[in-house]
Design goal:
The protein has 7 helices and 8 strands. Bound molecules: zinc ion.
Length: 259
């Protein structure tokens, strides 16, 4: 449910949305249907090499692309939004001046197989891969972000939970996750098995050990779709991803100290 308040000026000129919990429709709805819809600050190109050795190498893997557009609902093409969010996350992390190296498995609208995605992250010597996707369901009631890690990948599960905890309000439905066929207390094993198979279809077996699948929201849910078009929400998603990266760096630092 959307809960942030409309700015005063918008409430004045849009009496119809006064008090409504629905996000006002974007005035640029039509323009938002193409890749150029996702207007973020222009990419400044790769940051000049770090002055210090990066303490983590992160690869963002934008799901789908090229002949595989992924889910398409409510005017949004998943592959485009995935790429826009991946590029935005890279840009924000680079401008945060944290000692991390950031790369993308794809930078354009191109098709990559799971193997190619894995090989790209290997070339980039990624320690952590965050695979960015949007969900869709036949039921239009399903909504909210989810994040997954594969069984036994404890660090990735920790990162996945951190990202979910920090997701912006309209997409944040609590820390729902699935990670292991031997079901955690709050996921029943049947449902977990279904998710596990879906995660295996998306997370490349060639990724490095720590890999997280982030499903930012349901394109098939009108509230999620409108929220995902909103620059403030996109920024919030990237902030959540950055919190996940920060969590990963802490895990690595703690294990170095312990080791
Ligand atoms: Zn997808």
């Amino acid at each position: 449910m959307l809960s942030y308040r409309l700015p005063q000026w918008l409430r004045r000129i849009s009496p119809g949305v006064r008090g409504s919990k629905r996000l006002a429709p974007s005035p640029h709805a039509e323009a938002l249907r193409t890749l150029s819809q996702f207007k973020h600050p222009p990419l400044a190109g790769d940051r000049a090499s770090l002055l210090v050795e990066p303490d983590a190498r992160i690869s963002f893997d934008a799901g789908h692309g090229g002949t595989d557009p992924g889910a398409q609902h409510n005017g949004i093409v998943e592959s485009s939004l995935n790429l826009a969010l991946a590029r935005y996350a890279k840009l924000r992390l680079e401008h945060s001046y944290e000692p991390v190296a950031v790369a993308l498995t794809r930078t354009t609208d191109e098709y990559l197989s799971l193997r190619e995605r894995g090989e790209a992250s290997e070339r980039q010597q990624a320690d952590l891969v965050v695979s960015i996707h949007c969900n869709a369901a036949t039921s239009t009631a399903q909504h909210g972000a989810m994040a997954f890690a594969l069984p036994g990948d404890i660090a990735a599960l920790d990162v996945a939970r951190t990202i979910l905890r920090c997701m912006p309000k309209p997409l944040n439905c609590g820390t729902r996750y699935a990670f292991s066929a031997d079901a955690d207390a709050d996921t029943d094993s049947g449902r977990n098995g279904v998710w596990l198979q879906r995660v295996r279809n998306v997370l490349s077996p060639h990724y490095p050990r720590c890999a997280v699948l982030l499903e930012v929201g349901y394109l098939s849910h009108i509230g999620d779709a409108r929220a995902l078009e909103c620059p403030a929400v996109q920024s919030g998603i990237v902030t959540a991803i950055m919190a996940g990266v920060d969590r990963y760096r802490r895990i690595v630092a703690d294990s170095r100290r312990a080791g």
